[in-house]
Amino acid sequence: MIMTEDAGVQVVRRATVVGAGTMGRGIAQVLAGAGIEVTLVDVSEAQLQQAQEDITQSLHRLVRRGAAPAGQPAEVLGRIRCTPHLDASIGPDLLVEAVVEDLPAKRAVFQQGASVLPETAILASNTSSISITTLAGAVPGPQRVAGMHFFNPVPVMSLVEIVRGERTSPGTVQTIVALAQRLGKSPVVVNDYPGFVSNRILLPMLNEAMFVLMEGVAGKEAIDEVMRLGMNHPMGPLQLADLIGLDVCLHILEVLHRDLGEDKYRPCPLLRRMVAAGLLGRKSGAGFYAYAGGRASDGTAP
Known about the structure:
Blueprint lengths: L2 E2 L5 E2 L2 E5 L3 H12 L3 E5 L3 H20 L7 H6 L2 E4 L10 E4 L5 H14 L5 E4 L6 H5 L8 E6 L8 E6 L5 H13 L3 E6 L6 H17 L5 H12 L5 H8 L1 H15 L8 H8 L14 E2 L2 E2 L6
Parallel strand pairs: 3-4, 3-6, 4-5, 6-7, 7-8, 9-10
Antiparallel strand pairs: 1-2, 8-9, 11-12
Helix pairs in contact: 1-2, 7-9, 7-10, 10-11
């Protein structure tokens, strides 16, 4: 049961994360690290197994770096339960959807969650571009729906973009902001609009870097070095696109192009060709760079 504190802020004690991919497993880790009991749901048993292994490795890396005590991995892993089923027995205070960046898929998760979970449960989406208002329109109680956009890698990145839909209640926003702070993150509240703030600004830059590469203005290393050294970016735009996932970049650009109706958001043809070829970046082992063991095999370390 959610316990209510002052100013309408609710304390989340149990959470369900749907989707055990890169983002979902990272979200599960930081929630469990904050003392929250987490159920990680994915239809793929293999994905759940991989998620457990990756979370374990991530926790031990934090210990080796001195960022966590030696006993923390066991404690955190003890708070995470994996299951292929989303059902009423979970009964969480919060559901975080982290499935593929596809409106029907996300809407289906919310509809199933709303049908089996308590009416008090907050429904949050980790979407990087899809309308929160549209997602909320698919379930009863749209006031409990909001965006909770984490950034990759979740255990490291401090920003959480909190997206307020047209019918999201102030209490829902306050609760998610308080939760993000409890996770040690820095929440920033924005309104629902295509791409929100982060990706509306970021993706056109990544897309333009791809056009520059396609047009032969410079090679990939030169493009990334210009932005790192000249603009003081921690990594170049093509390296960052590989980290995000080129399929995700393409989807976000398609949403921006369709919903805002401006050609400045038109996806670069090179990006379309690479996605069609299965060159998705780090997660596929090759994108603009080739990867082995999480590092660029040409010596570049995104």
